[in-house]
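User: Please fill in residues for this 137-position structure.
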């Protein structure tokens, strides 16, 4: 189980009416919280499945602004929801987004490594696919 209280410790929004809202600070804080939660989520699976999760980590932590999960949390905050309850859903949004980026590159892998897919990710994916297939049959 994820420790959402620890991951959300810094999620307090400063909403002082006398000062301007610091959007850059908010984005940095939320991005850091989401990265921590994603790290905890992907570190949960030891053993033989670790190869698959190394691939997932490579796809998820290859850079990005985390705008989709930040918007998920911000929308929930507007309606008064506690961010620690929304964080798993925000992470799911980011994981689905990372999946869609990798999935879009899959057809290019069958013919070339020169497309948008990274050669390292291609090697990771081949290894993970082999491990996953070996455990299914």
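Assistant: Residues filled in for all 137 positions:
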């Amino acid at each position: 189980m994820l420790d959402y209280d620890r991951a959300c410790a810094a999620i307090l929004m400063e909403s002082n009416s006398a000062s301007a809202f610091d959007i850059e600070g908010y984005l940095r804080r939320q991005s850091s919280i989401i990265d921590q939660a994603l790290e905890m989520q992907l570190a949960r699976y030891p053993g033989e499945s670790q190869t698959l999760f190394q691939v997932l980590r490579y796809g998820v932590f290859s850079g990005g602004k985390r705008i989709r999960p930040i918007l998920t949390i911000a929308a929930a905050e507007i309606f008064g929801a506690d961010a620690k309850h929304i964080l798993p859903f925000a992470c799911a949004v980011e994981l689905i987004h990372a999946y869609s980026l990798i999935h879009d590159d899959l057809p290019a892998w069958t013919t070339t490594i020169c497309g948008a897919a990274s050669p390292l990710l291609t090697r990771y994916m081949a290894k993970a696919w082999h491990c996953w297939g070996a455990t299914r049959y």
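For context: The radius of gyration is 18 Å.
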